[in-house]
């Protein structure tokens, strides 16, 4: 019954506890027990892993955002996914992640050490924002994230040559520098008015931080936009003494609707004007010499132009004397051949009630009398060694470009403008150019420029002393300059590529970017050879009339080709629409302009501004609102005297007196609009 069993390691246990012999019948029970024990241990282990995974999943969530190693997504309050961002340049090591309050932080990626965090901010009860940052700590490789856009409409970014509303992505584009450019000359680049901001119909907005060496690309097959930070093969430069390690940082905010989230973004992150330009700029047309006379302007033609404005009974904010009134580019004295009695000319214009502004630019051509002086005083942007000026080619030749990061260059430029104002009574200036494509790929400035578009900002600051009537065509973080921003030159054509159809999408885009005092360029376009519909010397008559009608409902009107170049009927139509602008449009615009100082809200608004729940409103690119109560629907097609009109839900009265009280959005098909009319509707309280 009992037995002595051998001890371990060859010994014998002489005083052990007697062990009962296991018979054959008991062995299955023992096996089952062992198996059960193993299963219990496995279950406990699985439970521990499950609990750990739940804790990790909880760790990788912050409010409405879910993070994984390949990217993150954001949901709205109802649980629907409204934003997706993928990490293209690396994946996170989730074991390196931790959560401290509202900050979710990770310290490693699959390629090395990083500084990654997502910080949750709740600026309003109905709005959630996330600050996202991925900074490389060991490598100069680019950081790239990819934003999916296939489930919503997006707006913002930049002025473009072919402007679509909403943004239309076509083809594939590797990330390229997101910097200002002259899109009249470089039609595939980003435009002169540009901000790192996009807004979605999903009530989501994203703003890239100013410190990022930002490049933008896209892929219409993948339905993604690529946000990339890099210093290699790029005009961006790291701060002095810092390694060229890329940092991609941005803010994403989600709200209840697109209008509400845009208001939050503008109030928190955009500079705003500190004053409104002069009332006359809004109320009366500006008359430019450019499209009519180009460079062939002189004293006699200017006086004749002014005389005809009065002769035909038009009001005038001011006359804009454009290109080639000086002997050379970079000079500030009137050409004595073209303007033999400049002082007398300005005296007569003033006596006749005309103010005059002058065209100017940042270039000093190599054959200008001022080139040597600027070179001697180190006023130019220099090539990288700092030994020679960086000569640049622009549309009027080759020369140096003034370095507006240099206080001496700024003072030299401004002093000449002030001298012109003092000597001739010049009212203000049209500051042309300013885009970064007129800088060399590599250059040196007095103050370090990590972001080349900061040069655009510095140039726009030159308008501040003259901003009551000043005009700019480029802008980057320049919303607070408080002057009018002009669309890049338009061709005298009907289409979306710098033509009549491009005006509404472009105005809506730069309005969303925070620029509200908008000059939609010259009525009828610039009448450039080979870029004019019909190939005549003048813009097509019908095109001119439709352009005039649209311009009458913009914040400001600008003529160059005058209506009397056509016939008496065109003059009559122009008189009627300038009067309508003065009495109906300008008072509304001026009221809204005052509100811009506090809110930054657009003056010219998209239809979705008052119809956030209507999918159709997000796609309308040929109508717009002035404020919330005046809806405009111009005819933009040749040969048409009717158009389809989308009317948001509400109580509306047409310009013909018709009343529409629709609880749902309404489509007016083939609504008749004669050649001398523009369709508009007023909200009835």
TrEMBL record:
User: Which InterPro entries does this one have?
Assistant: Alpha-glycosidase_related, GH, Glyco_hydro_31_C, Glyco_hydro_31_TIM, Glyco_hydro_b
Glycosyl hydrolase family 31 C-terminal domain residues are 600-681
Listed transmembrane segments:
29-52
Tell me the GO BP annotations in alphabetical order: carbohydrate metabolic process; skeletal muscle fiber development
Domain Glycoside hydrolase family 31 TIM barrel, by residue range, is 294-584
Keywords of this protein's UniProt record, alphabetized? Glycosidase, Hydrolase, Membrane, Transmembrane, Transmembrane helix
Keyword flag Glycoprotein: no
Q: Recorded GO terms, molecular function?
A: hydrolase activity, hydrolyzing O-glycosyl compounds
* Annotated PANTHER family: GLYCOSIDASE FAMILY 31 (PTHR43053), MYOGENESIS-REGULATING GLYCOSIDASE (PTHR43053:SF4)
Q: Which family does it belong to?
A: Belongs to the glycosyl hydrolase 31 family.
Question: What name has this protein been given in UniProt?
Answer: Myosis regulating glycosidase
Q: Which organism is it from?
A: Astyanax mexicanus
